[in-house]
Design goal:
CATH class of the largest domain: Alpha Beta
Strand order of the largest sheet: 4-5-7-6
CATH architecture of the largest domain: 2-Layer Sandwich
Order of helices and strands: HEHHEEHHHHEEHHEE
Distance between the termini: 52 Å
Strand content: 15-25%
Number of domains: 2
Structural class: alpha+beta
Largest sheet: 4 strands, antiparallel
Number of helices: 9
Amino acid sequence: MQETRRQILEILKTRYEATVDEVVDDLRARRSDNITAVTVRHHLKVLQEEGLVNAGRMRHRDTPGRPQHVYGLTERGAAYFPGNYQRLAGHLLQQIEKTMPAESVNVIIEGVATGMAADAGIPQGSLEKRLEAVVQYLNQTGYKASVESVENGFMLHTHNCPYHHLARETDALCGLDMRLISSMIGIVPRRISHMVAGDSSCSYFIPTKPVL
């Protein structure tokens, strides 16, 4: 990311919210150049277009002049900074598997997959249209997905696992992916390759005809 925009995100993370003038003051305190409000507005506009920053309420000045927009991070902008979510999720999942029977763990995973599928909002329509929407959703959530037409069906590939470190420790998350894909497209896929096993992708065969 461009350095000035990265610094603006850091300022908004620290302040929670800030006006253009406040961002200018903080940038000048960090740097040797005399950055202007016009330049900061340009960078804020780019960050807004990227979905990282929003302009929320208006703040009235203490001195005469127009009210100013107060800028803050969106959820996506906040996610730009490292968090401890993966480690926390790993410990929670380990404790669930230790303290609950396998059947109960499967019920929880099924519920999580159903909720994620509902959030995805895959529209009704042909299998091809649903798969297009599934690929778009998976890419938005970090899977680096693609789909190709093959004999008697489709192959859905995911080239990145958003929780690959956890997947090496438990099969539950791989089961989550299977249930998620099944819930989104309405067809139970067959996994052909598996990154945990050393393959370059997790690939799923989705039949268009009943398997005899």
